[in-house]
Amino acid sequence: MRNTAAGFMALAMLMASASAGAQIRHDPLTQPEIDQLRDVAQEPEPRLKLYVEFARQRLVALEKMRADPKTQDRGQQTHDALDDFVTIYDELNDNLDNFADRKEDLRKPLKVIIEADTEFQSKLRALKDAAGVSPKEVEQYEFVMGDALQTVDDSIADHRDMLAQQEEAAKNKKKKPQ
């Protein structure tokens, strides 16, 4: 009887801990943003431009939040905002790869993305190098900041290479007699 009761208690604790760990994943996109993306799901240029705009909005909101002296728990809010930015930026890259795999012409959206990459890199570096931030606060978002910078830095080269490949493919396509 004791083994049964102990087994039941262990099972109950296991189930409680499993349900506590099974949290709903936060989606950084709002429902209207999701709807906008759904409306252009098969159109590379407007879809990729939307991702750029959503990533930009997250960085602008982050800058505003950090500039407000009344902001509570700034380190955690910075972490969460950077995490949202990285998630959206990763989704931009995933979509870019999917459209490239389908042999879509991505030259126009890539130019917009490359311009945004430079802007994002600059904003992230400014945030990282901001003066007057306590080490305790920095500790809360340091890892995700490094991840954001690394992702953007790596993507800049990838995006430029992809644009060069796209331009070469377009040039070769024009040369071929039809």
Briefly say what this structure is.
The protein is mainly alpha-helical and 178 residues long.
Description:
The protein is an all-alpha fold and 178 residues long. The protein has one domain. Helix content is 81%, strand content 0%. The protein contains six helices and no strands. It has helices spanning 2-21, 31-39, 44-67, 74-101, 107-128, 135-175. Helix 3 runs antiparallel to helix 4, helix 3 packs parallel to helix 5 and helix 5 (107-128) packs antiparallel against helix 6 (135-175). The longest helix has 41 residues, at 135-175. The chain is elongated, with a radius of gyration of 22 Å.
SSE layout and pairing:
Layout: H1 2-21, H2 31-39, H3 44-67, H4 74-101, H5 107-128, H6 135-175
Overall structural class, as computed from helix and strand content, comes to mainly alpha
Span of the ends, CA to CA: 84 Å
Number of strands: 0
The whole-number mean of residue pLDDT values reads 88
The total number of structural domains is 1
Q: H/E series, N to C?
A: HHHHHH
Helix content: over 70%
Q: In one word, what is the shape?
A: elongated
Round the Cα radius of gyration to an integer and report it: 22 Å
State the helix count: 6
Strand content: under 5%
Largest sheet: none
The low-confidence runs, each spanning 5 or more residues with pLDDT under 50, are 6-12, 16-22
